Amino acid sequence: MEISALREAGLTDGETKIYLALLELGSSTTGPIIEKSKVARSIAPQILNKLIEKGLASYIVKEKTKYYQASQPNKIIDYIDERKNFLEDTKDQVIDLLPLLISKQQGSPKSKAQIYEGFKGIQTVHEKLYTVLKKGDEFYYLGIPEFQEEKYHIYWNKDHLKRVKAGIKCRLLFNKDTPREVLKNRNSYALCDSRYMHIDIKTPAWFFGYKDVIVIGLQSKEIAIEIKDQDIADSFYAYFEEFWKHTKRFN
After folding, report:
1. Does 180 have pLDDT greater than 70?
2. Which of 11, 14, 188, 231 is least surrounded, with the fewest CB atoms within 10 Å of its CB?
3. 183 near 250, Cβ under 8 Å?
């Protein structure tokens, strides 16, 4: 049986084994549960209590002996929903804490350049702008390649919703061979102005910037280099503006 989804839902290996044993045994004392689940006797009571706390098991007492049983499997969905709500609340608390954490980071020596790798790395370096930019601020991209994997299109659509909610503007310059529906999609979001570059050059690497940050990325290899330096950022911004003034609004 494929049970990895239960672990992804937040159950430990021990909790998963005992829960599955309870499903098969029905109402049972600890002895058969331990035997069937192959969980150590010393930790089985603690695991049973954890399952009860999560609403995935219960017990009754007969003649001073506890008989445990599994809750209905659909209770797992309730548990996932509760965990999701808890994580959302925790996320909000961490967001409120970010200014303090950032201030502490600024108080220590920082590298001016950092390298990010992988799909998650691309997301991380992009989303750092939300810790700096405020409503009415802007970021820009130059040289967005004509082809992007579908996972990137899904991510950018979600990010544009986040950007609009934050009131942040963006200007995007795409390679000329980029499908029109991509630009049409990006321009469907408020505060976004997407255009084609005015010259037909292939730029597998792109860069984006805001404030004193510039990021150079190569999406095909999923690597990005972030540089935090005002002079460098100003230089790239000047290049972007030179390209931008030769472009036309997309229609």
Report:
1. yes
2. 231
3. yes
DSSP secondary structure letters along 34-66: HHHHT--TTTHHHHHHHHHHTTSEEEEEETTEE
C-alpha–C-alpha distance, residues 77 and 5, integer Å: 12
Share of the chain above pLDDT 70, in %: 96
**Which of 1.10.287.110, 1.20.1250.20, 1.10.3720.10, 1.10.10.10 is the CATH number of 4-76?**
1.10.10.10
Tens-digit pLDDT profile for residues 68-123: 999 888 888 888 888 888 888 888 888 888 777 777 765 544 558 999 999 999 99
Dihedral of CA atoms 180, 185, 189, 191 in degrees, nearest 10, equals -20
Distance CA 43, CA 34 (A): 10
How many Cβ atoms from other residues are within 10 Å of residue 14's Cβ? 19
What's the CATH number for 112-244?
3.30.870.10
Is residue 212 a contact partner of residue 106, using CB atoms and an 8 Å limit? no
Judge whether 87 and 110 are in contact, CB under 8 Å.
no
Question: How many whole angstroms separate alpha carbon 126 and alpha carbon 137?
Answer: 15
Dist. CA 192–CA 170, nearest whole Å: 5
Angle between helices 44-53 and 13-25 (to 10 degrees): 80
pLDDT, position 204: 84
Q: Which residue is associated with the tokens 């029905």?
A: 26
Q: Domain map of the chain by residue range?
A: 4-76, 112-244
Percent of the chain residues past pLDDT 90, beyond the cut: 69
pLDDT at position 170 is 98
Segment (H or E) for 17 = helix 13-25
> Is the alpha carbon torsion for 127, 129, 132, 138 positive or negative?
negative
Do 135 and 129 meet the contact criterion of CB atoms below 8 Å apart?
A: no
